[in-house]
Amino acid sequence: MNFKEAIEIADNVYWIGMYLENDPFQCHPYFIENGNESVLIDPGSMLEFDAVVKKINSISDIRNIKYIILHHQDPDLAAAVPEIEKLIDREDLLIVTHSRMVPLIKHYMICSDYYEIDRYQHHLRTDGLDLKFVTTPYCHSPGAFVTYDIATKILFSGDIFGGISESWDFFAQDDYFERARQFHAEYMPSRDIFNYALKKIEVLDMELIAPQHGSIIQKAHISPLIEQMKALECGLYLEDGYRNELLLNLSKSQRHTLYLKEGVYWDYDKRKLFWHDTEIILKPKEKIVLTLLVSKVNATVSSIDIFNHLYEDQPNRDFSSDAITSLIKRIRQKIPQDTIRSCYGVGYTLETK
Ligand SMILES: [Fe+2]
Ligand SMILES: [Fe+2]
């Protein structure tokens, strides 16, 4: 591969970065060739300016750029924008970013107007272009997002999936997680916040991930890498004191409460159901049945067991599955959807996973 030239990574999509010698923090701008409405992604700093401009002009004309996507505010991806704007010299040039980023990005003295993705349903559709934006808050900036190109199924992922490494491969190899581990551990704020972003990303049908650092990730490596990333301790969790305190508090609270979904939880001590601080009022029979189900979380309780539990003081009463069905229906109306699963012909399971 000749890194002195632009490299086409999919139809009309190009890597236009440069190899910075002895720099473990390689930065990668990308270019989507789309005629008079072409797109420049995370163009970089003045360190790469000459090379980036030359590569764009080798594919198209820099004045064909109508959109510059900035996935967050950092100088390694945005510092050259004022100089690039001068070369593009278009009144209709737009900086595509999240509104939370604009108060910071404007300090580069960018003069173009902004296309704030959160004001446009996280989409950019123009002639020949269909980009979907997925927010990844706090990974690693409050307004951070990634860009999914629907035509090529490429995810331009900004800092997420970036790697830092002494040696650089254009395409990620089997050891890429090890190369990306340190960067994510240090830059992503916490494992749960990072997992929130990963869960939004993993549902996309991706052929390639093109990050702003590290290596381009091909389809075969994407799912295994995401699974490894999900288990990574990062940010605040790296601090032993914080992690231990957090885990201690979690285990304390988990002994007494069972979190369902959407802020709803069962308090074992009070034998009551809550939504945040507000009690969800249960009728006596509903409470008896829910108490039984929360005592056997994620296990199936048969309808007969539920019936016997409900009417233990009336041993001669005839079993009625309809009575149980309607009671479960009433309970379901008070708790988040899909919390109680029906096992046809067997019974019911209260699920927390
Ligand atoms: Fe960054
Ligand atoms: Fe970066």
Report the end-to-end length measured between terminal Cα atoms.
Answer: 46 Å
Instruction: Name the hetero compounds present.
Output: fe (ii) ion
Q: In which order are the strands of the major sheet placed?
A: 1-2-3-4-5-6-7
The CATH topology of the largest domain is what? Metallo-beta-lactamase, Chain A
Helix/strand/pairing category? alpha+beta
Give a brief description.
The protein folds into two domains: 7-238, Ribonuclease Z/Hydroxyacylglutathione hydrolase-like (Metallo-beta-lactamase, Chain A, 4-Layer Sandwich); 255-350, Winged helix-like DNA-binding domain superfamily/Winged helix DNA-binding domain (Arc Repressor Mutant, subunit A), CATH 1.10.10.10. It is α+β, with helices and mostly antiparallel strands. The protein contains eleven helices and 20 strands.
Describe this structure in words.
35% of the residues are buried. The chain folds into two domains: 232 residues, Metallo-beta-lactamase, Chain A (4-Layer Sandwich); 96 residues, Arc Repressor Mutant, subunit A (Orthogonal Bundle). Helix 6 runs antiparallel to helix 7 and helix 9 crosses helix 11. With 353 residues, it is an alpha+beta fold. The protein starts with 6 loop residues before the first strand and ends with a strand. It has eleven helices and 20 strands. It has a seven-stranded mixed β-sheet with strand order 1-2-3-4-5-6-7, with no helix packed on it. It has a six-stranded mixed β-sheet with strand order 8-9-10-11-12-13. Strands 14-15-16-17 form a four-stranded antiparallel β-sheet. Strand 3 and strand 4 form a beta hairpin. The mean pLDDT is 92. The structure holds fe (ii) ion (FE2) (2 copies).
